[in-house]
Amino acid sequence: MGYLLPNLDHIIAMYVRKEALLSSQIEGAQASLEDIFEYEDREKVKNIDDVHEVVNYIKALRHGLDRIKDFPMSIRLIKEIHQVLLADARGKEKTPGEFRYSQNWIGAAGCSLKEASFVPPPPQDAVQAMGDLELFLHKPSALPALVICALVHYQFETIHPFLDGNGRLGRLLITFYLCWKEVLHQPFLYLSYYFKLHRQEYYDRLNAVRTTGDYEQWIAFFLRGVI
């Protein structure tokens, strides 16, 4: 239906703002759509750090969509987009555009490594895993594009190659892949609302693949968000 809409750029711009907001909210940002509009009108906003995260997401999406017109999906591009995502915002001290050199983990705020709900691979293994993911992106496959997106998103989130911004960048990769493969000619697909609405199941399905190899339920969950 997107091909039939008038004023497409204006409509997409609004959806991009909403997607950026929701994706950042999944990670804990407290900004609102009104905050984004006020920031764009050069008005003062209270929660400026959260707003910067959302604004950078918009910049990263636009930058990535522009780059994939003549540049392939690759580690180099992923690092480039990550640098835009964290530039001059919260996380700017966590080596934007560079894979991590130390161990990270996922869990409740302030938890220790022993208390973590998930521990990604160590840095040297994460680099190798990202190389494998890059090869997968370019490997011919009979799988439907949306299934590949589900697998790529899962794998990126499991590798967690950066010190910060992995969740947001992992969701950006869904749009970039579909546009790169020309399944979409504009960023029509926005999954962050679905992921936010079913946040716990989102995390549970990812963890189920890690612990039991249950790819089928993760892919089914992912596809429900699209359909």
Largest beta-sheet characterization = none
Query: Which spans of ≥5 residues are poorly predicted at pLDDT below 50?
Result: none
- CATH arch. level architecture: Orthogonal Bundle
Strands, total number: 0
In short:
This protein is mostly helical and about 230 residues long.
Question: Describe it for me?
Answer:
The protein is an all-alpha fold. The chain has a single domain (2-98, 116-226), classed as Fic-like fold. α6 (145-159) packs antiparallel against α7 and α9 runs antiparallel to α10. The protein contains ten helices and no strands.
List the topology elements.
Blueprint: H1 8-26, H2 33-40, H3 48-67, H4 75-86, H5 123-138, H6 145-159, H7 166-180, H8 192-197, H9 199-212, H10 215-226
Helix pairs in contact: 1-3, 3-4, 3-7, 5-6, 6-7, 6-10, 9-10
